[in-house]
Write a structure and sequence with these properties.
Length: 114
């Protein structure tokens, strides 16, 4: 989608600090980090959010989670711990309508989340 900011990041029409990419996804630092490590993992294919995925997309969703774990290891927050967050729709607090996983780490997370 040409008017989607994350599609444009995946296509490198908008600059971002990419930490990992392959044929299916891109991972890059969040513009407004909420933790010392805050990386977004997105599929190259546009989905409005995780609720738009079907059973046929399960391998891609698994791949995105594996990539987030690889990036966590790469950025040295695997041992200390990290959190993966997927916001969806209004109550989920989603602000960008392209599926993305937040990888958060480098500080103690709290529970319940806000
Ligand atoms: P959401 O609120 O949809 O779960 O998360 C969207 C995230 O995208 C936010 O954490 C926000 O800071 C980040 N974001 C929005 N626009 C940009 C951008 O242009 N570049 C980068 N790197 N992050 C962005
Ligand atoms: Zn998109």
């Amino acid at each position: 989608m040409t008017d989607c900011i994350f599609c444009r990041i995946a296509n490198k029409e908008i600059t971002s600090r990419i930490v990992y990419e392959d044929d299916r996804c891109v991972a890059f630092h969040d513009l407004h980090p909420q933790a010392p490590v805050h990386v977004l993992v997105i599929p190259r294919q546009h989905f409005d959010n995780i609720l738009a995925c079907g059973a046929e997309d399960a391998p891609l969703l698994g791949h995105l989670q594996w990539v987030a774990c690889e990036v966590a290891r790469q950025l040295n927050v695997a041992e200390s711990g990290m959190r993966l967050v997927v916001n969806a729709n209004r109550d989920g607090g989603q602000s960008v309508n392209h599926l993305h996983l937040h990888l958060l780490g480098g500080r103690q997370m709290t529970w319940p989340p806000g």
